[in-house]
Amino acid sequence: MELIDGKKVAQKLREELKEKVKLLESKPSLAVIRVGDDAASEIYVKLKRKMCEELDITFTEYHLDKSIEQTDLIDLIEKLNDDESVNGILLQSPIPYHLNIIEAFERIAPEKDVDGFNPINVGRLAQSQECFAACTPVGIMKLLEEYNIDITGKNCVVIGRSNIVGRPMAQLLLNANGTITVCHSKTKNLAEITKTADILVVAIGNPKFITADMVKEGAVVIDVGINRLTDTKKLIGDVDFENVKEKCSYITPVPGGVGPMTIITLMGNVIKAYENQHK
Ligand code: NAP
Fold this sequence. Notes:
The protein contains ten helices and eleven strands. Helix content is 40%, strand content 16%. It has helices at residues 6-22, 39-55, 70-82, 101-107, 119-126, 135-146, 166-175, 190-194, 241-244, 259-277, and strands at residues 2-3, 29-35, 58-64, 88-91, 155-159, 179-183, 199-202, 220-223, 227-228, 235-236, 250-251. The protein folds into two domains: 26-116, 3-Layer(aba) Sandwich (Rossmann fold); 135-259, Rossmann fold, CATH 3.40.50. It is α/β, with parallel strands linked by helices. Bound molecules: NADP nicotinamide-adenine-dinucleotide phosphate.
């Protein structure tokens, strides 16, 4: 079994991106909109700011009050769309329930949509065209590439069908010529399906849900899950790592697997947006 070291790969990509930014005529810039006071969002945005600072990417946060109206949010998005000094726009989710996040994502200009949630980008991904796609699944594709894991003709099983992970993951694997099965909470005989997987991607949010008997000998197992244990506060994945690792050819740990790839992929997308806008 070989461990897929996301931390190491992300560090390598970070150094590459740093060098890339140095060669640009000006600094790329990312605008992040955060609405309300969700504690986890505050941490995620801080991490994004830190990474931008490290890469010399201009970072601007727009922190809006939780009581804002939808029109205020859309007005800000439109303002950032029109601002030539802004290359990437990211709306941090979740946002308060009275706001319509789908409409907000729709209003972010597709060429600045570095999170890949605008339906134009989602549609382009579905048609295997050049686009911005969600950062976590793109990061996973980079890990597979880095470890020379071939996808062509492989049985790929994705568990989870969220817009952030499962769906774009399935699409990217399909675009890379995998044979795809997507499972979710209504799937019957899940273990029978997971046992057919050459590449198994798990994005559920349920600690140690995937046990060794659900995994084929020699499979590649990608654990997207991040679950914090209430007693020890330890982070663990959706895969029973200790037992599953004995059976597979490659596996991602939690933490240190998929997690570090998400933020570095976002940075790559901001630089790509800058380059596209300066062609
Ligand atoms: P989500 O929106 O809650 O989606 C979870 C998916 O899992 C749903 O499609 C759900 O099915 C499916 N599911 C739930 N229970 C299941 C079961 N017993 N059997 C089969 N499928 C089941 O979550 P998400 O945003 O995709 O995130 C998933 C996990 O990845 C979370 O732990 C999250 O923290 C983590 N995550 C990590 C990163 C990273 O950077 N590493 C990024 C994003 C998310 P239904 O559609 O039928 O409800």
